[in-house]
């Protein structure tokens, strides 16, 4: 079995392996980062693909890891049990498989009574959970499943359906952390110790001082604490919102919108009322810009909803036009996220949709949308609606009518 992830996703592949009770190895290769931080691009000397292995026995998972992770993840997990790796940190020819060095080490540690069976099972679960957390986010790439003998010794087996369901739900919750936290590979940095002391326990402050050094990623910290990365990220999320912890990327530094040209253009037109259009259809964005710009508005568009979510926090627009049906993050989710931020509680958000049913309008109301515009629309319709909510100089004064009760509930 082999194919492309644009035709069948990882979740479906795993379900097929489970239903067929297959024993073997799934190989996955992708050029796109699982959190949208890298563009899909061809293989070059500067850019190598990410690859993963998942091992199965009778339709259950034995073990999984990213191909180039060696034993560094294992070293981090062993730290929680205060156990150090014994001997060399590179795989040997005696290992069952050169693509599973962690598994080989765990097997030898069990034989030597360095770790007990329960600890080994816990570590395997964490390793598999971490790998699937990345893989289930992939949208592009290739896969091959090959029948093969299972890894030995058999430390544990994991049922696919409950594990995948749990991780899939976690991925939905992870989206709620945007734009403050975007990737498990980002680094927390404690930036305001005195302010943190004013509302956090001394033990919490001490821990954050120790780990918030900009050198330990969220993922590493989760391993050290024997927690999944979502639990950790949710724990520090309030501190990130308050600005006492800064989240940085190793490669790019502080998280900023990817479309820096858009941001710079907006800053150059900061005296104009800013309107952001979020729609995965480029022609809609172009149409909105062609209508608004001649009228003296600073129109900025995004076709990627996750990129848009990051962008609006820096742009601070006066009004937002948001499509409902979009990949990765739909308009309802995006609107709800913005309404949970004090910066966007009263900014007009107008939903764009080809759907005309009463239920769709009610759903928009429930997540805090200000109004609803059905596509296709005339330029006069759009302009009248915008003037309705941007009739004051600041453009931020009109309180949204739809979703008003929701906003009050959030504040209360």
Helix content: 40-55%
| Strand proportion | 15-25%
- SSE succession: EHEEEHHHEHEHHHHEEHEHEHEHEHEHH
Rg over CA atoms, rounded to whole Å, is 24 Å
- In round numbers, the mean pLDDT is 80
Strand order of the largest sheet: 1-5-2-3-4
Which stretches are poorly predicted, pLDDT < 50 over at least 5 residues? 33-47, 88-97, 251-268, 392-412
Strand tally is 13
What's the number of structural domains?
3
The coarse silhouette is globular
Biggest sheet features: 5 strands, antiparallel
Distance from first to last alpha carbon = 54 Å
- Discrete helix count: 16
Structural class: alpha/beta
Give a short overview.
With 412 residues, this protein is an alpha/beta fold. Helix content is 41%, strand content 16%. The protein folds into 3 domains: 2-173, no CATH class; 187-254; 260-411, Response regulator (Rossmann fold, 3-Layer(aba) Sandwich), CATH 3.40.50.2300.
């Amino acid at each position: 079995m082999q194919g492309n992830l644009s035709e069948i996703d990882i979740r479906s592949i795993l379900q097929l392996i489970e239903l067929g009770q297959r024993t073997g190895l799934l190989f996955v290769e992708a050029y796109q980062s699982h959190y949208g931080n890298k563009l899909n691009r061809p293989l070059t000397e500067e850019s190598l693909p990410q690859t993963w292995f998942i091992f199965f026995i009778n339709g259950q998972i034995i073990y999984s890891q990213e191909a180039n992770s060696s034993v560094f993840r294992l070293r981090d997990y062993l730290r929680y049990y205060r156990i150090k790796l014994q001997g060399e940190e590179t795989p040997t020819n005696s290992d069952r498989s050169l693509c599973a060095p962690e598994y080989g080490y765990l097997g030898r540690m069990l034989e030597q009574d360095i770790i007990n069976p329960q600890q080994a099972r816990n570590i395997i679960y964490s390793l598999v959970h971490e790998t699937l957390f990345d893989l289930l986010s992939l949208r592009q790439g290739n896969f091959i499943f090959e029948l093969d003998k299972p890894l030995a010794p058999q430390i544990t087996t994991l049922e696919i359906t409950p594990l995948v369901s749990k991780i899939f739900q976690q991925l939905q919750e992870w989206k709620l952390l945007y734009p403050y936290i975007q990737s498990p590979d980002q680094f927390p940095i404690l930036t305001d110790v005195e302010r943190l002391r004013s509302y956090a326990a001394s033990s919490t402050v001490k821990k954050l001082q120790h780990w918030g050094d900009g050198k330990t990623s969220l993922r590493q910290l989760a391993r050290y604490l024997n927690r999944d990365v979502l639990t950790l990220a949710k724990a520090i999320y309030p501190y990130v919102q308050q600005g006492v912890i800064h989240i940085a990327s190793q490669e790019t530094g502080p998280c900023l919108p990817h479309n820096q040209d858009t941001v710079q253009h907006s800053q150059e037109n900061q005296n104009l009322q800013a309107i952001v259009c979020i729609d995965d259809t480029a022609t809609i964005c172009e149409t909105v810009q062609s209508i608004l710009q001649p009228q003296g508005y600073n129109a900025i568009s995004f076709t990627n909803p996750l990129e848009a979510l990051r962008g609006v926090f820096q742009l601070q627009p006066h009004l937002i036009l948001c499509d409902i049906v979009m990949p990765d993050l739909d308009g309802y989710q995006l609107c709800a996220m913005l309404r949970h931020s004090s910066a966007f509680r009263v900014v007009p958000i107008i939903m764009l949709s080809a759907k005309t049913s009463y239920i769709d309008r009610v759903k928009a109301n429930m997540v805090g949308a200000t109004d609803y515009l059905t596509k296709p629309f005339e330029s006069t319709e759009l302009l009248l609606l915008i003037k309705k909510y941007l009739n004051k100089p600041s453009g931020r004064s009109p309180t949204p009518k739809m979703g008003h009760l929701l906003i009050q509930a959030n504040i209360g």
